[in-house]
Design a protein that fits this description.
alpha/beta, Rossmann fold, seven-stranded parallel sheet, 7 strands, about 15% strand, globular
Length: about 230
């Protein structure tokens, strides 16, 4: 049975990916900051024994260590770094707050790096061997035509660089490292005017993850499978 480990799983795209992978017969290890408040995730877990909910604040390395011990030598076919923050307090020029910057760096950049380091061996012994991080087209420097969103853009661009390095460093293990833009989705973060639904985004992300090969490692995928310029 293939296995997914995903962060930020209590709502939005993360929650929908849990649902869709469970429907496909996968075992899912879903991480969120406060499991006791993740009502939809818990309701899903009560209906499906293949869903395991874990407490994980992605900036808390002690919790990450504990999760590593819990999963031990379990093969993880897909490690999906989905948790992220928009850092609205560091969006406007002249009004960027240091704490908002620090949170964005910790959640959007350092956490995916640490998750890779903690669970790389689990991924390496799996069949699919995929590590993917949810980035954003807003992390593309070439695509930036509107400015603003300083911390969000910067941390996503830095995440892209981290994933490309990982693609090179982990290639000898057969691991595929992917960078994924989920589209402009109608979620709490994306807002009500998003172009696609959560279900559409999750379905398209799964298609990319299902069809990727080692030759795709290090690529920056748009939600339709096209390659996004750096």
């Amino acid at each position: 049975m293939p296995t997914l480990l995903i962060t930020g799983a209590n709502r939005g795209i993360g929650l929908e990916l849990c649902k869709q992978y469970l429907d496909q017969g996968w075992e899912v290890h879903a991480c969120c900051r406060k499991p006791e408040k993740a009502s939809q995730l818990n309701k899903l877990a009560n209906k499906n024994k293949q869903l395991h909910v874990h407490e994980l604040e992605v900036t808390n390395e002690k919790q990450m260590d504990a999760l590593k011990k819990t999963l031990k030598d379990k093969p993880i076919d897909i490690l999906l770094n989905n948790a992220g923050v928009h850092a609205l307090g560091a969006s406007q020029f002249g009004k960027t707050d240091n704490k908002a910057w620090e949170e964005a760096v910790a959640v959007n950049l350092l956490a995916p790096m640490k998750m890779m380091e903690h669970f790389v061996n689990n991924v390496a012994i799996s069949d699919k061997k995929i590590i993917a991080s949810i980035s954003s087209k807003m992390g593309s420097i070439e695509d930036n035509s509107s400015g603003g969103s300083y911390a969000y853009r910067a941390t996503k661009a830095a995440l892209n660089a981290v994933m490309v390095s990982a693609a090179h460093d982990l290639r000898h293990l057969g691991i595929i490292a992917l960078i994924l833009h989920p589209g402009w989705v109608r979620t709490d973060m994306g807002g009500p005017n998003g172009e696609i639904s959560v279900k559409e985004s999750a379905r398209n992300l799964r298609k990319i993850l299902d069809e990727c090969t080692l030759e795709d490692s290090g690529k920056f995928f748009d939600i339709d499978g096209a390659i996004i310029p750096w």
